[in-house]
Amino acid sequence: MAYDRRARLGEFPALQLLLAWAAVSAILFLAGLGRLAQGQFPDPDDVLRLVQVRDLLAGQEWFDTTQYRIDPPAGTAMHWTRLVDIPLALVIGGLTPLLGQAAAETVALVAVPLLTFGLAAFAIGRLAWRMLGARAAIFAVLACGFLPALLFQFRPMRIDHHGWQIVSVAFALWAISWRDTRKGGWVAGLAMAFGLSISLEILPLAGAFGAILFSRWWLDHAQRGWLVAYMQALSGGLVLFYLATRGPAAWTQYCDAISPAHLGFFLTAALGTWILAKTTKLRGFGLIVLFSIVGAAALAVFAMSSPTCLTTPFAALDPAVDALWYRRVLEGQPLWSQEIGTVVPAIIQMLAAIGATIAIRARSIDWVRGWWTEYLLLLVLVNIAALLVVRSLGLASIIAAIPLGWLAANLLDRVRREKAIVARVLSVLALVILLAPMTPVTLSKLVAPQTGGEGNTTAKVQEARCAIRDQAERLGTLPQGTVFAPLDIGPTILLKSHHSVIATGHHRANEAMADVIHAFTKEPAEARAIVAEHDADYLALCSDLAEANLFAATAPDGLAAQLVAGNPPAWLEPVEIGGPEEFLVYRVAD
Q1: CA–CA separation, 489 vs 467, rounded Å?
Q2: Within 10 Å of residue 2's Cβ, how many Cβ atoms?
């Protein structure tokens, strides 16, 4: 039994935390009503997630995540997991007999993201109460409503996997505060195994938690059980989730999702950790050497199992796909490549969270100071990850919510205590600047469609006057076929019509994605051969969409440029479906 890691101040404020969650959820719901009514998803991945759930409910096998309407007839094997499909399928499948499919899907699009946020809010609320008291816990949950990167992942219709990864980090963070070493380590490991099974994106965070628990071992040999339990649960959980979602294809090796090579790595690391805990009491440099050997052995197992996976999953992308798609998906790029509306709030809020954590640590004593030292290290590590890949900003935000909540509570206390008007005004300004530097802009973005957001492609899809979500339904009135279309509008065509598409913005379809990009950037004669190779029946294009204009700017003589200019080649026959002039539809001539 480890030392008591609790510092409870007052009864757990369950009702108050529920109200705080409800307040943030109400804001998200009301701000998203317009988008919900228009069917305007935050991101194409959310659209394709609903397509995947529909396929599951329509009878596609649990272990089969292939999208057969992407690059038919073979389809495209998705790197997504069924774990994220479960709550959506339960809500939609359960309510469809009562409400009908359309209404059931609407309920799921609202309820699942908000309930996901509820789980994250519970974990950080419980942790904040444990370490700082009831008031700080309430403000920590409320602070979530002022963190744009976090807020984005829980808005209605945001049904992709990022929110669930935030939940996994929140529960792992809470678990390592528990007084029971084995339970805390196991829950933290299982939480991170769940997150990693969803996506490898949080691998740096899994390593960061491991580093924190290693530091406990480093400082106190009696605390080695934390890392042992964490690694056992992490490796065992990965195997459990893997077998539960992969089935007969379990031994297929992929580099972009948990696969046998990854399982071998974590099982080897867990075994090595357990052996060291049982056989040595080394400290200092000697312990580092031993863990370096364990790490080298785990890496060797990984390399022998899949040497091609030693590089990133995106290293093998076609150069055109890399340049005209991957490098333009802003959520996968560094923070410094983002728009100023993303960079400034992130820097101010994360620095404020780090500063608040330092202040909390300075006021703490004994083991509590050690805990906040660990918290500070974890916060710094996750912010480094967010600096390099901006999608990690949501993970950083859930960790930052607790110190920011504490900071907000203290600033409000100062406002009440101060008698001088100037001092009160300055305190209020500090609260606004440090906690919510872009609140007006954030709220305006939630209320109405605009550019920006979690990636430039999504915003431009929303901005396009051709309104693909409406035109795809009109496209569905044409006889079923395969549509040759840019990557960004592919998911909506799949959702709103019975047609197939050549590719969407998902990297496992690298060759098909390359064909789409090459066709739109090659001269019409060359493009015709590529389109014919895929037996496409139709070609569709939004002429005012960013992707179409990117293709046109890249190749002024290419097919996209000719279509945007209103000069289709003879092998494309215009089809009138009653949409705006910006939505171009052609039948591919034999």
Answers
A1: 10
A2: 18
For residue 185, what are its two tokens? 């380590």
How far apart CA 165 and CA 154 sit, in angstroms, is: 11
E-assigned strand segments in 199-279: none
131 contacts: CB under 8 Å, gap ≥ 6: 7, 177, 368, 371, 372, 402
The closest of 159, 590, 128, 179 to 400, measured between CA atoms, is: 128
Distance, CA of 565 to CA of 465 (rounded, Å):
16
Amino acid at 216: R
**What is the block-wise mean pLDDT of the chain (590 residues), using blocks of 10 residues?**
47 92 94 87 92 95 93 90 95 96 96 97 96 93 91 93 95 96 97 95 94 94 95 97 84 84 95 94 88 95 88 81 86 82 85 95 91 96 92 94 92 76 70 64 52 41 68 92 94 94 90 94 94 94 88 93 92 90 90
Please state, in angstroms and rounded to a whole number, the distance separating the CA atoms of residues 541 and 489. 8
DSSP single-letter state for residue 491: H
User: What are the structure tokens assigned to 280, written together?
Assistant: 């040595």
User: Which two tokens mark 227?
Assistant: 């890392």
- Of 91, 40, 96, 188, nearest to 492 by C-alpha is 40
Residues 6+ apart with CB under 8 A from 174: 123, 124, 126, 127, 130
Query: In sequence order, what are the beta bridge partners of 588?
Result: 572
Place of tokens 């809500």: 91
Answering whether pTM is above 0.85, one says yes
**What is the per-residue DSSP string for 114-134?**
HHHHHHHHHHHHHHHHHHH-H
Question: Are 540 and 546 in contact, with CB atoms under 8 Å apart?
Answer: no
Q: Per the structure block, which two tokens stand in for 213?
A: 């628990």
- Amino acid in position 235: S
Can you point out the beta strands (E) in 499-537? 500-501
The number of beta carbons lying within 10 Å of the beta carbon of residue 134 is 19
**431/436 Cα distance (integer angstroms):** 7
**Can you tell me the distance from the alpha carbon of 216 to that of 379, in angstroms, rounded to the nearest whole number?**
17
Sign, CA dihedral 487-493-495-500, equals negative
User: C-alpha angle 24/25/27, rounded to 5°?
Assistant: 65
How far, CA to CA in Å, does 493 sit from each of 425, 442, 446? 52, 29, 24
The residue assigned the tokens 């364990």 is 294
Per residue, the 3-state secondary structure of 20-63, as one string, reads: HHHHHHHHHHHHCHHHHHHCCCCCHHHHHHHHHHHHHHCCCCCC
Provide the b/e sequence for 91-110 (b: ≥16 CB within 10 Å). bbeebbeeeeeeebbbbbbb
Residue environment code for 379-401, b if the CB has 16+ CB neighbours within 10 A, otherwise e: bebbbebbbeebbbbbbbbbbbb
